[in-house]
């Protein structure tokens, strides 16, 4: 039985609970969302990736994460940067104005993950990132 969700900084391996079963607010279903922990670990991880990494990875932009204004701001900063961003967005996040703004960006490539493609979709993601990096590199050398 699931008791919570963890946010992990891929660079430092720091972890914190994004949400746990319990009492308190804000809530999404049976989970109490720890906005403070998301901001301490998750927002800091995206900021660090913008400074130190070639690709920014965000998993995920979902209803829990959208409770944080700082998270939305850093996602926007990442999407507006020159770095490729690989992000997952929960289908329900598209119901929010912020989620819709991400999904309707002209510079976003949407790939739907489902049971039939989830084992191989990483290849398509890598192809898109490599194409982006190559095009960006060529544009900088011109």
What do these coordinates show?
- The protein is of the alpha+beta class.
- It has helices at residues 35-52, 69-80, 97-103, 121-141, and strands at 4-8, 15-21, 27-28, 31-33, 56-61, 85-89.
- The strands form 2 sheets. A 4-stranded antiparallel sheet has the order 1-2-4-3.
- Helix 2 (69-80) links the parallel strand 5 and strand 6.
- Helix 1 packs parallel to helix 2 (69-80).
- The longest helix has 21 residues, at 121-141.
- It starts with a strand and ends with a helix.
Keyphrases for this structure?
single chain, 142 residues, alpha+beta, Rossmann fold, 2 domains, four-stranded antiparallel β-sheet, two-stranded parallel sheet, 41% helix
The neighbouring-strand order within the major sheet is 1-2-4-3
The name of the CATH topology of the largest domain is: Rossmann fold
Q: In total, how many beta strands?
A: 6
Helix count equals 4
Mean pLDDT: 93
CATH uppermost class of the largest domain: Alpha Beta
- Sheet-strand content, in percent, reads 15-25%
Terminal-residue CA separation: 55 Å
Q: Can you tell me the CATH superfamily of the largest domain?
A: P-loop containing nucleotide triphosphate hydrolases
What's this model, at a glance?
The protein is of the alpha+beta class. It is 41% helix and 20% strand.
SSE layout and pairing:
Layout lengths: L3 E5 L6 E7 L5 E2 L2 E3 L1 H18 L3 E6 L7 H12 L4 E5 L7 H7 L17 H21 L1
Helix pairs in contact: 1-2
């Amino acid at each position: 039985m699931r008791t919570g969700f963890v946010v992990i900084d891929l660079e430092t391996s720091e972890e914190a609970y994004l949400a746990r079963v319990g009492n308190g607010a804000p809530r999404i279903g049976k989970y109490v969302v720890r906005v403070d922990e998301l901001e301490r670990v998750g927002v800091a991880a995206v900021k660090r990736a913008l400074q130190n990494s070639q690709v920014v990875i965000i998993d995920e932009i979902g209803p829990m994460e959208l409770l944080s204004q700082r998270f939305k701001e850093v996602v926007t900063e990442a999407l507006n940067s020159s770095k490729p961003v690989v992000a997952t967005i929960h289908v329900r996040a598209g119901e929010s104005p912020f989620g819709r703004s991400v999904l309707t960006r002209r510079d976003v490539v949407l790939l739907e993950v489902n049971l039939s493609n989830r084992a191989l979709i990483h290849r398509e993601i890598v192809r898109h990132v490599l194409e982006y990096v190559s095009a960006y590199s060529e544009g900088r050398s011109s």
